[in-house]
Amino acid sequence: MLTLYPSHAFQLPASGLMAKTQLPLSTAAFHYLSASLGLSGCSTPSDESTTTNNEKELPILEDQDAPDQGFFPPDGHAPIYSGGVTAQLRKVLDTIDVDACEVNGENAFFIANLSEVYRQHQRWIKALPRVVPYYAVKCNPDPYVLRLLSALGCGFDCASNGEIQSVLDLGVSPDRIIYANPCKAASFVRQARLQRVALTTFDNTDELTKIKRFHPDCKLVVRILTDDSKSVCQLGLKFGAPLSSVPRLLEKARELGLDVVGVSFHVGSGCYDAGAFADAISRARRAFEMGAEAGYEFHLLDVGGGYAHDNFDEIATVLGTAIDQQFSDAEFGPSNHNRRRPISIIAEPGRYFVQRAFVLATNIIARRDGRRSDDEEEEEEEEEGEDFDAQQSSAVEATDAVATNGEESSHNNEDDQEKPKVMYYQNDGVYASFNCLLFDHAVVHPRVLTLQRQFVYDETLPAPGVPKVMPLPIPPDSGAEADADADPLKLQPCSVWGPTCDSIDCVKELAYLPQGLEVGDWLVYDNMGAYTLCAASSFNGLRPSEVRYSVGGEEEVGAREVRELLAR
């Protein structure tokens, strides 16, 4: 029997959350959620056994079933393979003959390591046991990601009827969905009623009027404005009611006979200041008090998104402490018998789950001289040979800065920036997977996957992943041993461009890559799971990159569990 983690699992009645679904909740979260939703039929299992008559043992997929052909989960859309990222990249490249020039033969492709999604979920429930994650579908609506998170008991934050339908198509109950878009078209509100999604956000009176007309029984959550100045994407520019306007909104809701059940906020996507969450919790507490003054007893707190991998532990500590201080169990939990319903706490993480789970491999389809004018060419000829050692050292230092800090060094300063000597063109760009550069403020770092058609990638190296010494033999008859400029490992400043005919399609204005890179070689980009595929277009008739799925290597935490969860 699959054990997700040390926690209580409980069966939900068919009228509540998805029937016969085991939700992975801590004891505290179990009591909060079951009491708040009025699930009288829920109970924690006894210590002697966690198996009910409705449960059945899951088939264990033996290793020999997966390595070559993979396995298809029931109703799956693509095979899922075993093996880590490096193994999957090598397997895909082994099937591609760039020189054969087959149609779409050298297309860019993603590797999705689903066990990374599983591990992030384990990390979440350990760090924030009171907070149930509702995955932000907009971030990456990949069917296997949605399916895995559903099996793990997550809810879903949807922003449109299309996202709602993609979740419902997986068999998820509408009770596990929050329609977290405060400004919806009237037809979308009506469709949500037909889809039986009965929880949504609002931040203006016009939205209340629409909901009264087309979905009057919907449970409402007022979205408040918070300080999102410490976030990469500041959503407060578009959504969120200032606290000063909340009483007026609640008065209007009472006038219309609508049921407001709680408060939501969003500190902005990619928040890098944990203190923003503590401040937002304080504002939410004041909004709860305003609700009580308006005659409501709020019982839902939605702490939104903004969670990233790098600083999640810090954010979780600050957020968890703030929740316990402002929304204590004694005041808002089941132990307070003066409350009709204890509080439920949910969140809307997106990139947190998927950003690190996807890598993207791109093929170099062309290259050209990076000098942009005749004057540049003349200047370069005059400078040739003067400072070779200094230039090489400078390039290596810049690369090391990227590897250590994830940021460019002072070479990115306008006055001190080297100019690209080579322009590389790859088969994915800002109109497709790299739209995140324009819309999500992402910064990407190309890593070398193959060099002169030899596989040199090592996922254990930090970006940009160019080792000091690579096992790349130089042909003995090339004469390259005596010519430093012919060294294929020598780093040189370059730029990387996408495949379209638009000059905005620049993936990297300045990178340092080995000068031995050729047309037909491959690059790879880490952390490409968030806001990439979901907004890719077919501009210039170029189709979005496809995904190859993996459960990870057998030694990876979560590989076995993911296979079993998806085999259901």
Could you explain the architecture of this structure?
By secondary structure, the protein is an alpha/beta fold. Mean pLDDT is 80; it is low at 1-67, 387-415 and 465-480. The chain is elongated and about 80 Å long. The strands form four sheets. Strands 1, 2, 13, 14, 15, 18, 19, 20 and 21 form a nine-stranded mixed beta sheet that branches. It has an eight-stranded parallel beta sheet with strand order 5-4-3-12-11-9-7-6. A two-stranded antiparallel sheet has the order 8-10. The longest helix has 19 residues, at 275-293. The chain has three domains: 1-57, no CATH class; 84-130 and 356-375 and 390-473 and 483-550, Lyase, Ornithine Decarboxylase, Chain A, domain 1 (Beta Barrel); 154-349, Alanine racemase (TIM Barrel, Alpha-Beta Barrel), CATH 3.20.20. It has 16 helices and 21 strands.
Short structural summary:
This protein is of the alpha/beta class. Helices cover 29% and strands 17% of the residues.
User: What overall geometry do the principal axes of the alpha carbons give?
Assistant: elongated
What are the segments in which pLDDT stays under 50 over at least 5 consecutive residues?
1-67, 387-415, 465-480
What is the strand content?
Answer: 15-25%
Helix content: 25-40%
The CATH architecture classification of the largest domain is Beta Barrel
> What CATH first level of the largest domain would be assigned?
Mainly Beta
CATH superfamily of the largest domain: Lyase, Ornithine Decarboxylase, Chain A, domain 1
Determine the N-to-C terminus distance.
12 Å
